[in-house]
RNA sequence: GCGAGAGUGGCGGAAUUGGCAGACGCGCUGGAUUUAGGAUCCAGUGGGAUAUUUCCUAUGGGGGUUCAAGUCCCCCCUCUCGCACCA
């Protein structure tokens, strides 16, 4: 029909105009406004298409950013591409095309889709982490870490994905032991790898969480992941040797109850202390533990197994000989990889003891006199020490300190803090990443590539980028063979590339100066524009990207390049959109293609509909049908404006008189929409605008003489409020209403709280809590007046006659309840 | 096993934080208009009774506090998401 909103023409028109007029050109040096850096996690172009989740995410964040702009801020809302890494590489391999090519193609088509959202991105600030101009600085970052000892190489048991053919960081392994990317079971291999010393900042990474506005659940996940644990490291002398086993424990108060020691199978001392008669059995056990998949080994319901080494240690408290075992329930990577076993007071040790008939010694009893009999399980609570020599009768918490002090005096132990967090493993045996700028020289060892030789380019020719179990760069002669930068003899480059999370750990600095040649970032601009005012991304990054980025920020502060502690002052997570109640996935066949709906209904309509489905943080369920409701809403606005535009455009703005309800409506709607956008509850903001439009229709239908001044004001306000949510349409209507300049250079309207207060209120009369009668009365009507009114109601009288009125409760201007 | 969050009509979802449950939208029913309707407008729409008047019932289930509970407290069920032998 000819009076429906012609979205195709208008959306195209405004995208063109905005670009031509530079409406969204960003000036980081604008001193007239205060800054807001609004960042949404960038996308990785693994496929050619933007999916519906991106629209949800980027649309909502753009709405918020536009709102801030209308409130007078200089808003920086950049967009770029996290283009290195497995998703892009796997996509390229699947299609048999070099990743550089597929990535470029994907980015080009995704950029067009991003433009269709109509967000305020200034594409002069785009970044692409796979471009040499960017990864040059990722490599520079590596070299800074290397120079300060924060990047180091070590041989270690690491997670290996047999399908992706690369090592993975702990953060990229799911809790069931599968690869985050492909789902294959991860195995453990011993490899020489590069690590970043994230554990140096373990404490700050926990304590600084108190100073940032993040979802509590996410903070908790990070705290748990970092896993700070205060305890005592206790030295157990090996009988007949000068070697010592260090055991980490959080329960030094149970030291007298230690009846054996358990080493992880990968513990350094295992070979040395295994006696000949046990070595076959020990070796067999180690071999088995090695091939066990990580998640199998860590399954809590597995029966505990282990082997005796034949050696003994001395319990420093009792001076008794205790056997040393190995068992795979002790993890090599945590604490010292060795535990003192206290079967009486640790259920895991207890179970092990049951199986291998090891002795149990009870040394803690409950502070309650009664329950002292523990036969079928360990007593893990704190209590009172006994069987513990001079420490008898101490409470556990005092005993922990006393035993630790006693050990410290004897130099056989010390208080330590242990973390669950491991150093960040950043090398990958894959092609599509930033090459590690290190040369391995037979003379000089590891030698950093000189900074002025960066970028160390990723070779595009003579390299087989398909995974083959070792780094593809290793077989590219032009790349791998090099003269040592220090001594000049033939040497080899490091064949590995960096984890993409290195690229994304610092991108938010680069956005401000994406083309800067001399430095990774401008210290001046970064210190001015960061920390980021709002960061938006999925909760799945809680223990990965979000810890890495915080770490790199803390590292850069420690070397004096930036001056603030935390990169993301406020964080929120977007919700997920389901379809037919389920997560969208190709295998379920319930994927919604955004383009289809954008073509049919327009960008604004699609975006509005997504925002209407549920609140931003929670998400919503997609239905193909509901979108027509939004189209109707758009058409209703379109017609409303068109019906009056000719009459109101020439009109001078002046004061007017309409029924108070309509004046109130304007202020109420401004308040609600303002608050809703601030809270990211766009669904209710849209509801309020729908109500507003419905009321305006009612007004025009009920009044033969429509007040045009009122129409003019309310339509202009409606269009501004609509602006952040449906930018193309609002911009068009703004122009139609005779205004000059972009809507997005206007001022967000103020509201007046007094104007919202109702002069008349509806007081509900209840009898024993049931709705009985309603009265419209002036605000502030007294209890006595209401009582009189209530007693004049037949309904009320009917309900209370024959009953005793016990009392009446009046909540001012709300409810009058008669209790019978 | 531990931890966090959620459960409201046929559907997506609201509810000023203890005060009229179901805003807004979809869908559905009836009517108007139209050559036509997958357009527009008006009315209705939680369920069950019923004299078109009113009653009963209702926010996963069961108890409790309160004049008043979707909202607060206790127990249970279901789902989602984390973590999972961390000594």
Shape: globular
CATH class of the domain at 228-419: Alpha Beta
Rounded average pLDDT:
90
- The CATH superfamily of the domain at 228-419 turns out to be Valyl/Leucyl/Isoleucyl-tRNA synthetase, editing domain
Distance between the termini: 60 Å
CATH fold title of the domain at 228-419: Isoleucyl-tRNA Synthetase, domain 2
> Class by helix and strand content?
alpha+beta
Find the count of extended strands (DSSP E, 2+ residues): 30
Strand portion: 15-25%
Could you tell me the radius of gyration in angstroms? 34 Å
Counting DSSP H or I runs of 4 or more residues, the number of helices is 27
The CATH architecture of the domain at 228-419 can be named as Alpha-Beta Complex
Could you explain the architecture of this structure?
This protein is an alpha+beta fold and 820 residues long. Among the domains are: 228-419, Isoleucyl-tRNA Synthetase, domain 2 (Alpha-Beta Complex); 637-755, Isoleucyl-tRNA Synthetase, Domain 1 (Orthogonal Bundle), CATH 1.10.730.10; 758-819, Ubiquitin-like (UB roll) (Roll), CATH 3.10.20.590. Strands 6, 7, 8, 9, 10, 11 and 14 form a 7-stranded mixed sheet that branches. Helix 19 packs across helix 20 (627-648) and helix 21 runs antiparallel to helix 22 (682-702). The longest helix has 22 residues, at 627-648. It binds one RNA strand of 87 nucleotides through helix 7, strand 7, strand 11, helix 11 and strand 26.
């Amino acid at each position: 029909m000819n009076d429906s909103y012609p979205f195709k023409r208008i959306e195209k028109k405004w995208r063109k105009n905005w670009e031509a007029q530079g409406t969204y050109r960003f000036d980081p040096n604008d001193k007239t406004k205060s800054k807001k850096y609004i960042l949404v996690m960038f996308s990785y172009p693994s496929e050619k298409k933007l999916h519906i989740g991106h629209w949800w995410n980027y649309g909502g964040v753009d709405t918020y950013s536009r709102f801030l702009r209308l409130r007078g801020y200089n808003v920086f809302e950049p967009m770029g591409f996290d283009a290195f890494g497995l998703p892009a590489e796997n996509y390229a391999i699947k299609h048999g095309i070099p990743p550089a090519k597929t990535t470029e193609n994907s980015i080009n088509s995704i950029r067009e889709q991003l433009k269709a959202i109509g967000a305020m991105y200034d594409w002069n600030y785009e970044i692409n982490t796979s471009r040499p101009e960017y990864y040059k600085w990722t490599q520079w970052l590596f070299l800074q870490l290397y120079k300060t000892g924060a990047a180091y190489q070590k041989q270690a048991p690491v997670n290996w994905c047999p399908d992706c053919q690369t090592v993975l960081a702990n953060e990229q392994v799911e809790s069931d032991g599968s690869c985050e990317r492909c789902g294959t079971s991860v195995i453990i291999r011993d490899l020489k790898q590069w690590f970043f010393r994230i554990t140096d900042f373990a404490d700050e990474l926990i304590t600084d969480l108190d100073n940032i506005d993040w979802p509590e659940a996410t903070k908790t996940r990070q705290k748990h992941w970092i896993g700070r644990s205060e305890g005592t490291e206790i030295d157990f002398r090996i009988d007949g040797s000068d070697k010592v086993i260090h055991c980490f424990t959080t329960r030094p108060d149970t030291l007298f109850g230690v009846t054996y020691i358990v080493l992880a199978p990968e513990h350094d001392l295992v070979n040395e202390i295994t006696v000949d008669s046990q070595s076959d059995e020990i070796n067999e056990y180690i071999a088995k533990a090695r091939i066990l998949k990580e998640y199998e080994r860590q399954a809590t319901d597995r029966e505990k197994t282990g082997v005796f080494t034949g050696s003994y240690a001395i319990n420093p408290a009792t001076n008794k000989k205790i056997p040393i075992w190995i068992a795979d329930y002790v993890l090599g990577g945590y604490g010292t990889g060795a535990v003192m076993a206290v079967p009486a007071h640790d259920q895991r040790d207890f179970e092990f003891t049951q199986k291998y008939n090891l002795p149990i010694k009870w040394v803690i009893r409950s502070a309650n006199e009664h329950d002292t009999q523990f036969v079928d399980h360990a007593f893990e609570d704190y209590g009172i020490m006994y069987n513990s020599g001079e420490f008898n009768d101490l409470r556990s918490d005092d005993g922990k300190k006393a035993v630790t002090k006693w050990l410290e005096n004897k130099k056989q132990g010390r208080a330590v803090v242990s973390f669950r967090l491991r150093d960040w493993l950043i090398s990958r045996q894959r092609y599509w990443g930033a090459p590690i700028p290190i040369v391995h020289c037979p003379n000089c060892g590891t030698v950093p590539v000189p900074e002025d030789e960066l970028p160390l380019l990723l070779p595009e020719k003579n390299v087989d980028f398909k995974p083959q179990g070792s780094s593809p760069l290793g077989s590219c002669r032009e790349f791998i063979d090099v003269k040592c930068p220090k001594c000049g003899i033939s040497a080899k480059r490091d064949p590995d590339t960096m984890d993409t999370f290195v690229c994304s750990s610092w991108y938010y600095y680069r956005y401000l100066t994406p083309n800067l040649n001399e430095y990774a970032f401008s210290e001046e601009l970064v210190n001015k524009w960061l920390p980021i005012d709002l960061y938006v991304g999925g909760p799945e990054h809680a223990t990965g990207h979000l810890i890495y980025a915080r770490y790199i920020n803390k590292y850069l502060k420690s070397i004096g390049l930036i001056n603030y502690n935390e990169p993301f002052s406020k964080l929120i997570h977007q919700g997920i959109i389901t379809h037919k109640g389920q997560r969208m996935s190709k295998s379920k066949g319930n994927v919604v293609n955004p383009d289809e709906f954008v073509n049919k209904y327009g960008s604004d309509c699609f975006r509005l509909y997504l925002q209407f489905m549920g609140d931003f943080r929670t998400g919503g369920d997609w239905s193909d049908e509901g979108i027509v409701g939004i189209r109707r809403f758009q058409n209703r606005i379109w017609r409303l404006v068109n019906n009056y535009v000719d009459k109101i455009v020439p009109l001078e703005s002046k004061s007017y008189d309409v029924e108070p309800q309509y004046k109130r409506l304007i202020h109420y709607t401004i308040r609600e929409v303002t608050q809703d956008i601030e809270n990211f509850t766009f669904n209710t903001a849209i509801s309020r605008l729908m109500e507003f439009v419905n009321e305006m229709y009612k007004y025009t239908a009920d009044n033969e003489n429509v007040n045009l001044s009122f129409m003019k004001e309310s339509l202009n306000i409606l269009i501004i409020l609509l602006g952040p949510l449906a930018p193309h349409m609002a911009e068009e209507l703004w122009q139609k209403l005779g205004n000059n300049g972009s809507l997005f250079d206007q001022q967000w309207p103020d509201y007046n709280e007094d104007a919202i207060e109702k002069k008349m209120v509806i007081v509900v009369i209840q009898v024993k809590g049931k709705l009985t009668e309603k009265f419209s009365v002036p605000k502030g009507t007294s209890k006595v007046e209401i009582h009189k009114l209530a007693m004049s109601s037949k309904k009320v009288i009917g309900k209370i006659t024959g009953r005793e009125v016990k009392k009446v409760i009046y909540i001012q201007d709300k409810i009058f309840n008669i209790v019978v």
